[in-house]
Design a protein that fits this description.
- With 368 residues, this protein is an alpha/beta fold.
- It has a single domain, classed as Ribonuclease Z/Hydroxyacylglutathione hydrolase-like (Metallo-beta-lactamase, Chain A, 4-Layer Sandwich).
- The protein is built from nine helices and 19 strands.
- Strands 3-18-17-16-15-14-11-10 form an eight-stranded mixed sheet, with no helix packed on it. A seven-stranded mixed sheet has the order 9-8-7-6-5-4-19. A two-stranded antiparallel ribbon has the order 1-2.
- The relative contact order is 0.18.
- The protein binds zinc ion (ZN).
- Zinc ion binds next to loops.
Length: 368
């Protein structure tokens, strides 16, 4: 048994410097194109161009002209006409062995191939600076969006200190909503978009229930500015996890919120005070499927429903980011142990109708 263990470690070490990913494991991972419920496909995708091969996005009544592109992991592009906002995208999909025992770096060719047009973006929002959210941001910013500002926590700013100029980095501090009396909106595009950071938390990355063991990668924070961005995944330290309220407002009257999004990039049960003081409900909740089962899928869904009252649900951060980035459903797998089908089952079991949720694959465009 021990010799097998050493053989496995040796294989990991030997394959670590290469781009070779360990193959997906069918008994703990589901392939995107095979995800089903009662014989019906679950994903919505843009890859084949045939809208009938998978699930169409349910019809959105009273749509507001918001186009949303799911980029994979925590990356979303929200766009309305010439106004847009981006959440930290991740295309590099470093293999598990490079993350675990070797070094990591942004895959610039993959970023160049898949990043959307970012001309209309003024702000990039980072929920937390773990490598699977922040590794690609310096290159995305420098090559494709140097006109934008990057918003996030102090740990993020310290990690990016050598890569993004201070004038383009904004540490969210006083703006963070930590209770029902705090929080401030940051304005973008002359007020047509506004966003408010919300104090949040990060579900464990690994949990073994019977042994009551929980593990969170790269906890704590980076407290001093770094001379260069880290090369080890463990040094992309968490800091305070933020969720966001993102509002698209009316051109005729910027006091009027026309579409409200709740965004989180790590599993967290939203608080009762996460809605801003105006009490306006959320039009779209972007929820994190990966690791939701570690904090309890049912309670997670119920808490989102009770505290945010979303009209629509978008299920994100569910696909395996240790496999090479792809927008082909035949090459996309769920994060190990995530169980995306069970998440949808639980959602429906809690009364969320089929016209309320969508499970997109990376690259898919949705309209709200
Ligand atoms: Zn994380």
């Amino acid at each position: 048994m021990m010799s097998f263990f050493y053989l496995l470690i040796a294989l990991l070490l030997l394959s670590a410097p290469t781009c070779i990913a360990l193959p997906p494991l069918p008994w703990i991972q589901e392939r995107a194109d095979k995800l089903e419920r009662n014989g019906k496909k679950l994903i919505t995708e843009d890859f084949t161009g045939d809208p009938d091969s998978f699930r169409r996005q349910p019809v959105v009544s009273n749509s507001q002209g918001i186009d949303i592109t799911y980029l994979g992991s925590g990356g979303f592009l929200f766009q309305r006409d010439t106004t847009a906002i981006l959440t930290a995208p991740y295309f590099s999909n470093e293999s598990l062995q490079r993350v675990g025992v070797w070094s990591i770096e942004a895959d610039t060719a993959t970023i160049d191939q898949y990043r959307p047009d970012l001309k209309a973006v003024q702000a990039i929002l980072v929920g937390h600076p773990h490598y699977d959210h922040l590794l690609d941001v310096p290159y995305v910013w420098k090559k494709h969006a140097p006109h934008t500002r990057v918003f996030g926590n102090q740990s993020m700013a310290n990690i990016l200190d050598s890569a993004v100029p201070k004038t383009n980095l904004h540490v969210l501090d006083n703006e963070v909503r930590v209770d029902k009396n705090s929080g401030a909106f940051v304005s973008s595009h002359g007020g047509l978009i506004q966003f408010m950071p919300l104090h949040s938390s990060h579900a464990p990355n690994i949990r073994i229930p019977l042994m009551d063991i929980e593990y969170l990668i790269a906890p704590r924070s980076v407290d001093e500015p770094l001379d260069e961005v880290p090369q080890q995944a463990r040094d992309w330290r968490l800091g305070e996890t933020l969720a966001y309220i993102i509002d698209f407002r009316a051109a005729s009257d910027t006091a009027k919120v026309e579409f409200r999004i709740y965004y989180q990039d790590a599993g967290h049960m939203p608080e009762s005070w996460h809605l801003p003081a105006d009490g306006r409900r959320v039009d779209l909740a972007i929820v994190t499927v990966a690791s939701a089962n570690f904090i309890g899928q049912g309670e997670y869904i119920q808490t989102i429903r009770d505290s945010l009252r979303p009209r629509h649900w978008l299920l994100g951060h569910w696909e395996d980011f240790f496999q090479p980035y792809s927008q082909n459903p035949e090459e996309i797998y769920s994060v190990p142990f995530t169980n995306t089908e069970s998440f949808v089952d639980t959602l429906i079991g809690r009364g969320i109708g089929g016209d309320e949720w969508v499970l997109p694959t990376p690259g898919t465009k949705l309209a709200y």
